[in-house]
## 1
Amino acid sequence: MNNTIKATARVVSIQDSLVSIETLTGSDQPLTKNEVIYILPARSDAKHQERLKAEVLRINGSIADAQVFESTAGVSVGDLVEQSAEMLSVELGPGLLGQVYDGLQNPLDKLASEFGYFLPKGIDFPALDGNAKWAFTPIVQTGTVLQASAVIGTVQERGFTHKIMLPFDVQGEATVSWIQEGSVTVNEPVAKIKLASGKERTLTLKQRWPVRKAIPQPLLKQNIVQRMYPHEPLITHLRLIDSFFPIAKGGMGCIPGPFGAGKTVLQNLISRNSDVDIVIVVACGERAGEVVETITEFPKLKDVKGKTLMDRTVIICNTSSMPVAAREASIYTGITLGEYYRQMGLNVLIIADSTSRWAQAMRETSGRLEEIPGEEAFPAYLDSAIKGIYERSGVIKTADQSEGSLTMIGTVSPAGGNFEEPVTQSTLGTVKTFLGLSADRAYKRFYPAVDPLLSWSRYLEQLQPWFTEHLSQSWVDNVQDLLKLLKKGDTILQMIQVTGEEGITTEDFVIYQQALFLDMVYLQQDAFDAVDVAVPLARQQESLNRIVALVNMPYQFDDKDAVRDYFTKLTGLFKNLNYSPTNSSEYKDYCDKIDQLSKSVIIDKS
């Protein structure tokens, strides 16, 4: 065994990924909860000393239980353990954007280029490239007194102004004693500060932060932390979400649905087309094939501003074929990166796919710890754990008085599409937008397959002042009226299924056709059409106003066949309108045809 190993504990038992360790006699370094430790298997055939990363979960005297983030094959009772004296942390600094990490922030491309596709155990790579040079520009001078999160300078990263901030763990005020402009790596000093304790600390472009602890919000005037109320919608360019079930910037939403209902496609559309600065995709337990598709497609795609999608994206990749324990940690890694960019005053979107797999990882660990189980064997603290990750979203006022937001959208994969299972129910009690996917709508090829009768958004009324200012006074009223139309149409459809069309009146059949028309031309959207894939809010408003006018017309029909024929033609014209570029000749032509068709069936009041 290598004599340089500074072991402070040893392995006393092993159960799958759960390992119990005991402090060595004479060790003066106590174990702490959530501390990172390294298990050192005594393997004579190893080409290098494996250092298996683990996290302490529970302490009972000199014995501690830790979850190992890799396979424990080869670990034996008596193997030595090193302590890191720090919690599970990530590196924060320039160079994060465009990267694909695993759940512990190891860069997967670097690992693959170094070791091939079969990665050895016990490998720990720096998250940030230590060779890349960054042009650092200071914005403070020597003698400036600052607090944690204050901006000391900037670098340019993929079109963004990346703010270099005073480390978040600085207590009280600190004075800048030296700062210098130049081209440096993330490991080279750029400034020195004198702490309130009198000690001097050297600063680089990067800092570390524990993932299970929220990054503290900046202290503003009079040492007050200001957390703001979400007041602006997240524009996804998806009509169904933006108009009917909006999500606020800094808000919380969830997308539950059964297998094959289109969760992954919908989350990819949201991440591609949302009006945000930074997107962090956390693949915590989904199938590797879906994640590989995301990784290979994103570099080829453009966002709504015409920039390469990966220039604003970070992918945390811990699929179902990767270690379960790391899957549980991956979502915290993604949230911490999101909080870091929010602290700069940027709007950040986190997509977690899926929180069900993340909760299942917690269930496995909880079972091995022999904790008292809750419903369906999930840990009793499932509800508080889910609330804990979603509530790290929000809008804050940064140290330089700009606003930053972190929006959290999690997909949920309930077995059999059962929305009554614990993960879905705990999520529903936390979020304020629920986009429930329907297997029936997906089977009918109604995409996005969000069921408008099942879904809801508490942000619709909360954001009414914004909609009134930027769209119209009647926007929310129109949306609520159309939602009522959809419910009426569904009730009439159920009557038709029982009695046939003969059992309802022509007036009811008109309402049913109106609801179907709204569904076909507005709620559904073609992800493969260059125009319809992303619809600006102004065009959504124009389309919605046109639909409201059409359904409120004083119709006159001779029979149900005339009703069906009219709405079939109207639906075809409106779909072609959706595929036509705004203000093009085709667009104006279809608008005229819709007006002519509608005039042919209204009551002649003359």
## 2
Amino acid sequence: MPKPFLHPLLRLLRYAKPYQPQIWGAIICSILRTLLDLAPPYLIGIAVDVVVERETSLIARFGIQNPLNQLLVLSVLTIATWGLESLSQYGADKIWRNLAQTLQHELRVDTYNHLQELELAYFEDRSTGILLSILNDDINQLEGFFNSGAQNLIGFFTRVFAVGMSFLLLAPGIAWLAMLPIPFILWGTFVFQSRLAPRYDTVRDRAGIISDRLANNISGIATIKSFTAEAYESDRVYQESESYRRSNKQAIALSVAFQPILRFLILLGFVLTLYLGGREVLQDRLTVGTYSFMVFIVQDLLWPFTYLSEIVDEYQRAMASVRRVMGLLDTSVTIPHGQQLLPTETVKGQVQFDHITFAYNERNHTLKNLALQIPAGATIGIVGATGSGKSTLVKLLLRFYEVQSGRILVDDIDIRDLNLCDLRRCIGWVSQDVFLFHGTVAENIAYGSFDATESEIIHAAKLAEAHEFILQLPQGYDTIVGERGQKLSGGQRQRIAIARAILKDPAILILDEATSAVDNETEAAIQRSLDKITVNRTTIAIAHRLSTIRHSHCIYVMAHGQIVEQGKHEELLALNEIYASLWRVQSGIH
């Protein structure tokens, strides 16, 4: 089970546990590369030692007395060192970058899959732009960290440890002076890190907000143009972008101030080594070769601290992204899958709402102790004023939301016990707000029935009275409908959505204002097709136009989350209540 309180880096490493061999391989290559990169000062020190000491040099202790032969051995050793460094650099870069791509891919897919499991209420409380920012910007930030940040972090600690140990072994008397600035540098770094982290959290939040603003504006570009609101929206984008710029400016102000301060501390360590080391040589307490090595290597000990702020900066950006991604992955799934299977071919389609009560986000109850029995194969109509709970009823049947009390049963099985996929496979839903994906007409009709043949797609389109207008499109069934189907009219989108539900061939068909966006002629054509496709199929038709449900087996009138009238068309007219009043208004009878 995820541990939200764990440090983001530990969370990330725990997530990457299946790739531990690659991680360790990359770490080893990075360490080896850093150690080999430190070799030149050592080799220079040995070369000076050979030239000065000759037959008593360090290499001479291994049995090679001739100085020329010593230089030859040193040259071969240098070539080998450079070759191994290049090889380890290649290995580190390749492993880290491949690991970055793999983790980025899997983290994005896992996060998206988890997002799909969350209930609709989660999306109602969050903007699309912020979620897209997490799925794209934050996960891409992690790619950058693995590509370079991880290597820089490992290289820094390896370099400091290796050089520090060399100082202690070769010149313990002055090593502590060279290392004197390090505690102050580290203390400043941790203070800097603690202040920088919340600033980068703010930066990531601001990035999500501006992403949300841009996504909304692009989706609503027609509305912006129709209300000539371009200047207003431009100003809003400016304000959000300015907030993002200011939050980044605050982070930058802190991060860039750190390096100049470090330079003075590093200068102190370098000067102490230069002066005190030279004095030791003059007093014959230190060899020239060792002194040469120390003067060169002290920069490798201290100068990496000048880049520490950049390393920490990159690290903090990545950890801010990890916190946001892992925060999304930690979100609990409140509508879990049931364990009982419901094969589509065995579904009869009997539906029962057993005294259900439901409210959105602890608001006033949308449905109150509602009871409704729908026999298998029956066609029922549901009417009522806006906000009476009609659409909520079918969303609960699809388990988009969970009832607070009562039960919903399909074929006498509580839907909470059913596998969610099985439940939704046996239900075809045509929503009032039709959503078409960017793709062809045929792809949108076959959505959810991905193995459908061309003839099956055409047959479904004919039943939905869509075939004729599809043939008149530029590429027929291969015509691209545009994002959200924007290239089609509302009535055309509605008929494609009906064809999509017909092709699914569900045991239970839900028509949620399915003819709301069509003209009278198209409505009549769709009604003829519905008369055919509702045979031997449980059909729940939510309608504003009463003419579309007048022939239903039973019509239910809802008000304030309850059923207040029920019966056939003629029976409800005879009651002369709400339904009769609605019918008179729509039919022009006064």
## 3
Amino acid sequence: MLKTLKSFHKTPILQSLKSHLTPPTVRSSSATLRFFRSASSSSIMGPFKYPEARKDETIVDEIHGKKIPDPYRWLEDPDSPETQKYVESQNAIVKPFLEEGGEWQKLNAKLTKFWNYEKYSCPTRHGDRYFFYKNTGLQNQNVLYVQTSLEAVPEVFLDPNTLSDDGTIALQGSVFSDDGKLFAYGLSESGSDWVKIKVKDVETGKDFPETLVHTKFVRCAWTLDNKGFFYPRYPKQGKADGVETDAMQNQKLYYHRVGDDQEKDVLIAEFPEEPNWRLMPEVSHCGKYLILYIMQGCKDMLLYFAKIDGVDIQGKQEFVKVVDKFEADFDYITNEGSVFSFRTNKNAKNYHVINIDFDNLDAEWKVLVPEHPKNVLDWCHCVDKDKIILGYIDDVKSVLRANSLVDGKEIFKFDIPIGTIMGFSGEKKYSEVFYHFVSFLTPGVIYKFDFAKPNEKPTLFREVKLENFDGSQYEVEQKFYKSKDGEKIPMFIIQKKSSGKDKRKGCLLYGYGGFNINIQPSFSVTGLVFIDSFDGVLAYPNIRGGGEYGERWHDGGRLLNKQNCFDDFQAAAEFLVAEGYTSPDKIAIQGGSNGGLLVGACINQRPELFGAAVAQVGVLDMLRFHKFTIGQAWQSDYGDIEDPKHFENLLKYSPLHNVRTPKSAKEQYPATMVLTASHDDRVSPLHSLKFVAALHEAVKGCEFQTNPLFLRVYSKAGHGFGKPTAKKIEEASDILAFLCKTLKLDLKA
């Protein structure tokens, strides 16, 4: 959805019906769980009863002639005392399970130790200053620093840790003016997508008096005169605190003049006939054009522009339509006069760079940098007046090149190790660039290169190191395995060199597979602690639905092809077993958001293939996802339920609607922990609550279900962005303790 590069620390409706039949109650089912003696715990987890969710049999939808019961719809109301009591009762069961026996405390201490290292972003130049983010190790939020030169002593420019006692206020959507004298920054509270925008004078460090509200998915675009910026906002909501579930509609584009109250903002564009359109403004490098991207899903956009050079912005602008059909994506790179360069997948599934003349839209678009036959052009950036930095993906690994803006020919290729360019900074008006490299075993290396000195190689600017961590003790393999339909799928496998293959080893298998998102090598403290603590194996299959191989890969795992994602993931587990890395009862699968859907679908379809499952903030009700918050945008990947073909497809794999009662020990669900958060207004907690309620109902009285099925709900947290370090460590401790106990892993010191 977002058009920006991966950032500093790298992870997207009708009113809810309210229960009115009975007072808040949470009953206990008669089903008890039999727990094992943990391999690393001296105590036996005694039998207990799951909280039983009330079933309302009167809620039945008829969709394309099929009756669909929805007995737990009352859990869609987050404000209901009954819902809140249900959440409390679930937490009351899972927390003692996780924390009893000492494993949680040991893992928490190890995670805290590993997490405590300095983290940096690339420096970015704005005017005559450099800015960068830094975290000393355990700070809840990254701190923004400023320098007058790269050699000057850094000073704190903005520390979000001072804005709340618990670190739950985070910076989001921050943008400097072109000359670096003004700074518009967004503040998100408790992990919500809602953002409050403030404006700071860079020289004095003081904020202007106004606060802009009702903004989500914000993208500010400054005019070059520094008078103000364009930004999108939603109409005023009766409730907008991150807990609500209402659909996000009728976004409009405004212009804000610095120093004015928000009520004085100028309406620039609105499309009342298209309530689901989302608007993203961008001002051209020359300052003469306002570019407007319009999206309604999570792929494909319209492209409009308005000339704003010398215009006194007092009302709606006259936009010219460059692209008026939703059939491709466009990223602005730069322009020379009326000739605009864009990265696009129009007529190029692996993306290419094209030129469009805004003064002659009838002319044929010219290809500046042709599509690579194999590698995917992931992002572009204009630097040093007439050069384009091109970030490619080659078999899931980053490749970095510089081409000429004049003729598109390559002029420089960067020497990049096997890994990922996690961050990049550079501007058209400056010759120097910075890029941030990470890998599974490299926490972060920042390089600097100056195009004004073409004979000099990129130099090491800053390297992050962990105390007592030796990456040479680990090995990373990339394997290619066949999925159910014969498609070759790449997968990274990480483990200690000394351990070798062993079917008794625990394996953590992580997947996503959606929305054109790439799962590239990255440094994970949680993953390394899993390897170090349990002598385990990490596996990252690049299943279809992602963007690792362009639109072909994305299309191969979306809409009516969505089952390919699940097949690819299940085939990864089968490959790991067949190759002797692990065994089914030692495999844990994990995924978040769309990856939570992946986990939910797979434990329904192939429960015997996994020993444990962790589904985080998952999309689990595939018949109503479009009715809440920003869910309607996901129809580009999941499909429109109004179409009978899509309805039938969604019904086949919807985790909520395919829960079943095990008929044998082989069919029992793997040990499962479903995680969500109170302020997740991207994927509402209702998905997780309804899914777990259905699971508990299905296994009630079932003698074959001996593995635990848990729900864990975090307070003052959201979908993931801006989560404080303390909460990240808490969640990682919960996950690793759960895996330790349920996979019966030996916890090493």
## 4
Amino acid sequence: MADKEAAVYIVDVGKSMGRRRHGRPASDLEWAMRYVWDKITTTVATGRKTATIGVVGLRTDETSNELQDDDSYSHITVFQEIGQVLMPDLRKLRELIQPSNTDEGDAISSIVVAIQMITTYCKKLKYRRKIILVTNGEGSMSSDGLDEIVKKIKEDNIELVVLGVDFDDPEYGVKEEDKDPIKAENEALLRSLVEDCDGVYGTLEQAISELDTPRVKVVRGIPSFKGELRLGNPEEYSSALRIQVERYYRTYVAKPPTASSFVLRSDAAAGQDIDGENLLTSVRNARTYHVSDESAPGGKRDVEREDLAKGYEYGRTAVHISESDENITKLETNAALEVIGFIQSDRYDRYMHMSTTNVIIAQKTNDKAILALSSFIHALFELDCYAVARLVTKDNKPPLIVLLAPSIEADFECLLEVQLPFAEDVRSYRFPPLDKVVTVSGKTIKEHRHLPNDELLNAMSKYVDSMELVDKDENGEPVESLAPRLEDSYSPLLHRIEQAVRWRAIHPNEPLPPPSEKLTQPSRPPEELVSRAKKYLDRVIAAADVKKVPPKAKGRKRDREADKPLSGLDVDELLRREKRTKISPNNAIPEFKQTLAYAETIDAVRDAVNQMESIIENQIRSSFGDANYDRVIEELGVLREELIAYEEPGLYNDFLRRLKEKILSDELGGDRRELWWLIRRKKIGLIDKTVSERADVSDQEAKEFLSSK
């Protein structure tokens, strides 16, 4: 269980915080809130009720705090009492945290207010307590009672963090020129207070720069198996080895937060004003099951889920196995980790891994098991071999075959465990050799157009050498220039989604910021390396005779020659077939394509489209229910794609407008609105300018046409 936390953020909202300094596009307050919002939203994202937050405003126009009767605590307002922060609270804070019209207010007094809030909320309970003050250090500060404040902070075990806008920090390399003397005195006062409290003092620039580094979530290990490691059958042999062990994840796939489906609440959709409430409500799924029944209304009869039975496919037939028979097929197993063999480490292939890695350790409070497992680990290490075992994590669970490898470090030893494949999981594929070509007759060819020649091999070898990520140290020894470190290998997907969610929670209408530099850096090779290897790459391009493939020609299909068969024979010409002028409703799509292929004028294309329009409308009129809808959808799709290729989008758009009007006005054999719903679902809408340059319809107009009813 995670520790209880209570953090109070003190935000300086004084008048001076609304100014922009040193060429920054944002004000001091906006710049500071980048850090504060990031920390608050990270806590909110956890969803933990025990991770509580309070927010105090410093140098506010009004005064609202527990100690407000004392004039020393004026212009300090508690924006958020300590508690779990939710989305409505974030919206409220976003409105409250704005630059005020005064610079009155004491930062030291605001720390006292925060201490009082933590003392009242946490009492004597075990909490991780923290106060974060963000200020530009301007205005008056009183040094009275600092010793008592330091004493109270230490007694309550509160961590004090002070971050200042343009505070001097020689270690980070920040120094503000022409600093105001009052600000310099305040910085010295805050620094001495933090040092006496053993807290953290720094400049805001460093804190914001560190936000680009993704924060890794530290999780507590939960055992996925507790049981015996066995060598031999203890039921038959008293000499069998039995060690009480536990299994934990060593590596585990971190998944990004999942999205859920929500809809706008009915009262919000009706235009009612809902202050501070969530306008969305979750979507609930309901499933119904039905079977064909001619005697039932509509030809279908609903059935309950309890009446369903499992059917296993056997060819194209469903074979039913009753629940009583299915129990016979289940393998009865007992939870255990049983060693079934050993293998030398040099005979094991790494590609046999089928899962992430786990660690096997002895039972933590069992000294006998710890000694026994240590002996087993050292025996494997000294013999340079691995153990193969059968793992059943729970009774009646399917067994797994795993590999156990010894791992011995200075202060820790364990067995590394990874899943192995069964015989059915192994697939063997044969590929042709890369250095020769074997003909059908069995002849071996060393020189072929599909094989690289010596010039290309030499050029590629030098190019690969030039891309080596190796530098030389002071002694001339090779060292890796980009040595990957485990602590720097972040998941771009995970952290980018989390960053986007946190940003959108605070800035619902602003564009998302670019991804963190830490996430994109591994995807870009060093510029010096690219420039150094460019001449070798040019040699590879020349030796391989690499040519740019021309882009696929779009449109003007009627101006291009028809595709000729490889034989060079024109079958239509040999059979002396006449050019098609009439399209048959029974074979509309192929004959429409043939008609367009021989169309020499725009009038011929227009005539073919008119014929298809007539065929489609007749199919809709004669459709019994939705019997012809699939055929109509297919014909519309072909018509759209062909007219895009022939660069005649106007013919299709005019036809679709007429078709929509007739469908919605019930002119095609009654109510055919379901067909229009299918057209919208398949997105067979107007051809816009993003699809064809000759279209006169914008993307927005096409979307509105398709969405309107």
